[in-house]
Amino acid sequence: MFRATPHELPPEGWWTSPWYIGVLALICVIPLWQPHIPPLVDLLGHMGRYSVELADPQSPLRTRYFDFKWALMGNLGVDLLVIPLSKIFGLELAVKLIVMMVPPLTLTGMMLIAREVHGRLPATAVFAAPFAYCWPFQWGFINYVLAMALALNAFALWLYLGRTERIRLRAILFVPIGALIWLAHGFAWGVLGLLAFAAEIVRVRDAGQSHRMSILLGAVHCLPLAPPLVLMAMWRSGAVSGATTDWFNWVAKYVYLVSSLRNHWMVFDIRLVAGLIVMTVFGLFGLGFRMRRTLGVATLVLIIAYVLMPRIVIGSAYADMRLAPYVVAIGVLAVAPRFTNRYALQGVALLALAIFGFRLYLSTVRYEAFSSHQEAQLQAVEHIETGSRVFVLVDLPCLSRWESPRMEHLGAMAIVRKQAFVNGQWTMAGAQLLSIKYAPAKGYAEDPTQVMRPKHCRAWNARSIESSIALFPRQAFDYLWLIDATPDHWPGNDPTLKMVWNGGTRGALYRVVGSATMAMDTPKGMDKVVTQ
Fold first, then answer.
1. Nearest 5 degrees, angle CA 303-CA 309-CA 313?
2. CB atoms within 10 A of CB 255
3. CB neighbours of 480 closer than 8 A, spacing ≥ 6?
4. pLDDT tens, residue by residue, 349-361
5. Is the dihedral of CA 446, 71, 245, 324 positive or negative?
6. What is the pLDDT of residues 168-205, one digit of tens each?
7. Is residue 108 classed as helix, strand or coil in its secondary structure?
8. What pTM does this model have?
9. How would you classify residue 185: left for phi > 0, otherwise alpha for psi between -120 and 50, otherwise beta?
């Protein structure tokens, strides 16, 4: 299957022109151009953390509500980038610009890998372009997808330096490159290591070494990527308390794989992934396509990693889900058509471009719709006083719904725009820079206290909107914000709640009355007070 064969350059065509990758990278930004805030699920929650990170240490946000302590860990990509960029553009625009960099960087990395391995871009390469907007991107795993975009470009450089026999230069360059990618996100650094290891096995084997020696030398040549292992040992030996669990969850792995391009249209998304997997298998067996060994072995290594990886790593969920799209993408990049008929190749290239263009169009339309809906709900923020305490409940559909409404962390925008305390931030000792110090909100403060799903699909011990409204501690909050909730979920004749805004058919904001308005207004500061 992976026998050494003479290298054949793919035939030339307009899809192999130098300008082609640049044009693809430019149009890749189009869906993100219009929305003021990129409508990615977790991104808004991260923006709340960035706001705390950038806040004056003496502000109420830092002294009363949240704590933020820097630590060296492999998950700091955007957290570091927003510091200089927010000083120039402000936080919201800075985050948008960073997010806008990710798809074109991802696409560029994939295309450069394909060109380096095949010698020219094969007509099939752009079938991998939709993975620039893969499911982890839609979820808003922004540190990870940014780090993966950098890792893909770094792998293209690794291949180039290996092909040109500049091994010493590569070793020097990849000590800082590997460390920086690990700093952005440790998972991406791990993927880069696996890709580099697979490529080195093939390169050394092609130089005439035995299989055993190829594996040994491949590992030795990857040592410049190893220094972050020391940093990981230091990080893991600290206060990290998250568990690594849920191994070999085959149902989840199947769902994550077919959901690699999960976005807006389930049938199209699943069939496209299935078609790309079939094309990769055909390339493996030489049926109409051929597979380059460098990426073929890399695909095999990533498949093994995907199978062995648990769903939760150090308390971080969806660990294997994050890898799934890149397994398929590398497999697609590995293949090229065996046929050389120019009209047939042009048809393949046009089909790949048409699919990518259609997905960009669909994402553009849907992102504008998401953004409009979010902005409508964000009108409530204008009625929230700066420095307030806001209890957020978000009315959400079941997780099984293919397209997410992108509302899970919208409430965090009150942190960004009003320096407010809002429930729903992620907290994990040693694995998050942010922690919650506001004791009166205990039990109603962390993620996922804001998430409300229908009865038939929520956890057996999860609260409903009605029970959360009835039970949340009035003395700990100034506002109740029901995001995207329909009127049948709004509180009725509750004397402790006074409506100050409603979005008509969706969403409402209530002022909490009958208790001290602000924590700093109480006689004992942050202490609980008796509800009047």
1. 150
2. 14
3. 390, 391, 393, 469, 472, 491, 497, 509, 510, 512
4. 999 999 999 999 9
5. positive
6. 999 999 999 999 999 999 999 999 999 999 999 999 99
7. helix
8. 0.92
9. beta
